[in-house]
Amino acid sequence: MKLKYKIIPRGAANGQVPLNWVFLDKKDIDAAGLTHLDAVRLIANEMGTDCAAVDIMDMEGVTCTSDGIIAPGAVCGVASVDHRMINREFGYLNVSPIPFTEKMLEEETHMKLWLTEPYHGRTIYKGPSTADRGARASHNENMTMTGRICNNNVGSEVMNMLEMTEILAPYFGIYQLMTGGDVYIGKAGPIVSVGIGMIVSERHGRIFGSDNLGAYKAGMTAHNSGKYAKTVKSDYPAIVAPKSVLAEYTLRALDIGLVPGLDIGCSPACIELARAYGKPVAVDNISDRAWEELESIGFTKDYVTSPRDVLTREEIIKYADEIIPGMDGAKHYAASEIIQDQELTW
Fold it and tell me: What is the pLDDT of residue 322?
């Protein structure tokens, strides 16, 4: 029997990737007649004495980014493997599908995008359910780990804990790698560092696995660290999609009336896309703590509410590199330069 997988090898992108990162497609696991955990065990054995973070992908499903943007494909399981071993308690974490309820749409208004084409009817995964997490405490509810590595935030942030190195992969970057698209890799920088803290209210999210409806809402910051938010992740390399891809998927949310700071995140990317598209930003719903972080990177209330030329969808996608800020010294790569197709036999 054979199992296909993809791997970003340690040292890829001129040394910016600090550990091996393996991606399994759910359909390949199903075709091999394996459970997800059995597939991870095969990967662990294949890696030998090396270590790896593992993401299991359902490319037929959909997920939700930390901005609250529905996206094609989804992480449906994460793992950490080391010396052919998987820690019994913290080495593997399943991500169950989220069932549809009217209450969810009322409480998580960004999820309205899930009901539109091409997402309607597709299975959605976000973060692990209560049953998936089991007895895990809140500080490790969305991660797996070994003695050497940590696979955090449902497969979007992996760390070499011995060397204290880390790389981020916001979801659209993972999607590009899985579908053979282009990516950019560089330092996250202060704007992305602030932006990734501007999350939305949700249950079982990819960043917060438990119920954060009362703790965080659109317009608030999860970092909650004032002027220091711009330094939290700024030095980390990040694998991101071209800004035109981010623009395309975010515009779909704006098209159905979702508002940054009210329904979707108040990240600089969401704010700038809304401004360019002539759509509102819920400036009065953005918390003082979130404004403090935004102001540290030049996004004052006066700036956000200032007039600018309104562009068409096509113009925004074409000029997305100029419209969406963030990423320092990013270099373009084809997926084939970063991620390798492999196959193991057992």
Answer: 97
Mean pLDDT, contiguous 10-residue spans, the chain (346 residues): 96 95 98 97 96 97 96 97 93 93 90 95 91 74 89 94 94 97 97 94 76 76 93 96 98 98 97 98 97 98 96 98 96 97 94
The first and second tokens of residue 284, run together, are 């009065």
- CB atoms under 10 Å from CB of 211, counted, come to 14
Answer for the pair 215, 147: CB distance below 8 angstroms, yes or no: no
Candidates 177, 173, 155, 30; CA nearest to 4 is: 30
Angle at 281 between CA 280 and CA 284, to 5 degrees: 120
Distance (Å, rounded) from C-alpha 55 to C-alpha 23?
5
SS3 state at 215:
coil
The whole-angstrom separation of Cα 254 and Cα 60 is 24
Q: d(Cα 232, Cα 136) in Å, to the nearest integer?
A: 25
Report the distance separating Cα 53 and Cα 5, nearest Å. 13
pLDDT of residue 13: 95
Helix, strand, coil share of the chain (percent; to 5): 35, 25, 40
Residue with tokens 């979007």: 156
Nearest CA to 299 out of 328, 264, 253, 267 is that of: 267
- The reported pLDDT for the residue numbered 140 is 67
Give the DSSP letter string of 89-145: TTSEEE-PBPPP-HHHHHH-GGGGGGGSTTTTTS-BB-S--HHHHTT--GGGTT-EE
CA 141, distance to chain mean position in Å, is 16
| Nearest-angstrom CA–CA distance, 185 and 177 | 12
Q: Is 312 exposed, middle or buried (0-12, 13-18, 19+ CB in 10 A)?
A: exposed
pTM recorded for the entire structure: 0.95
Give the list of residues 6+ apart from residue 232 with CB closer than 8 angstroms, or none.
193, 197, 223, 225
Per-residue model confidence (pLDDT) at position 212: 62
Instruction: Write down the pLDDT at residue 147.
Output: 85
Q: Give the separation between CA 307 and CA 34, rounded to whole angstroms.
A: 56
